[in-house]
Amino acid sequence: MEHICKRCFLLESGREDTHKIIKEHIDRLSEKEKCTGEEYRRRLDVCGECDFLSGGVCLKCGCYPEFRAAFIKQKCPYKKW
């Protein structure tokens, strides 16, 4: 049975393939779509402390926080950021 890393993002949880795909999508976002690097890190810090993060996925809404957090207009559905 595979161990699921609690409070880990994709790369840390051994899902390098998915992390690479998401990073490629983020890199293709226009500057108008993408939040600043500082804001992105802040958002991921919040997600990294959240009990609903497991194996790189938000267990409440099913998103990849690393992807959702990159968009300037996106919000945490639970108003954590």
Mind explaining what this structure looks like?
The chain has 81 residues and is mainly α. 35% of the residues lie in helices and 5% in strands. It is built from three helices and two strands. It has helices at 16-27, 37-48, 65-68, and strands at 53-54, 57-58. 16% of the residues are buried. The mean pLDDT is 90.
Strand arrangement within the widest β-sheet reads: 1-2
How many alpha or pi helices?
Answer: 3
Mean pLDDT: 90
The biggest beta sheet is recorded as: 2 strands, antiparallel
Q: Provide the helix percentage.
A: 25-40%
Ranges where pLDDT stays below 50 over 5 or more residues in a row are: none
Q: Distance N terminus to C terminus?
A: 34 Å
How does the helix and strand content classify structurally?
mainly alpha
How much of the sequence is in beta strands?
A: under 5%
Specify the overall morphology: globular
The count of strands amounts to 2
Q: Please provide the ordered H/E string of secondary-structure elements.
A: HHEEH
Radius of gyration: 12 Å
Domains, number:
1
